[in-house]
Amino acid sequence: MKNLILIPVALLLLSLQSCIVSSTPKMGFFDNPHYDYGGAKFTSVNVPMFFAKPIVKKALRQDGESEELINLIKKVSDVKMMTVENGNKEMLGDFAKYLTSNNFEEWMTVKKADETINFQAKQSGDVIKKLLITVHSGNELVFVDVTGKFTPDDISRIINYSEKNDVKKMTFK
Fold first, then answer.
1. Helix intervals (H) in 77-151
2. What pTM, to 2 d.p., does this model score?
3. Of 85, 60, 86, which is closest to residue 71 (Cα–Cα)?
4. Helix ranges, 30-139 (H)
5. For the CA atoms of the chain, what is the radius of gyration?
6. What is the predicted pLDDT for the residue at 5?
């Protein structure tokens, strides 16, 4: 009987481990131990989607967002977020080269005052499997890596939503 209880508890604890905030980079290019980041400070977050989806959907409904946007959340299978303090343009340039060599396509760049927002996508046929959103403001960087199965129309809706809302308020609170 104890074993029947221990197995679900152990699985729950293992899934909660991924909720822990880390001070080490946890995204593609940035987990290279041989790259000199020049004093950059990283904060990485990876929240399991079975925790995040209900919370995000509820928050969007409370904010009065359309069901169309809320339905896009269903297509998301994983979200990783990383912030970088003391980032620099050289790091961004090397990151852009990394994206190009890993078959990411630039979808859109939005410039607002002192910040730049880039949307890059990696697709297979008509299905977009990864969306990478980069926000660069001075020496602060935010990276959001979204994995799922999206269409180009879905990405357009996400971009239109971000343009309609103040992205800086959403990311640099």
1. 89-101
2. 0.74
3. 60
4. 49-62, 67-73, 89-101
5. 18
6. 56
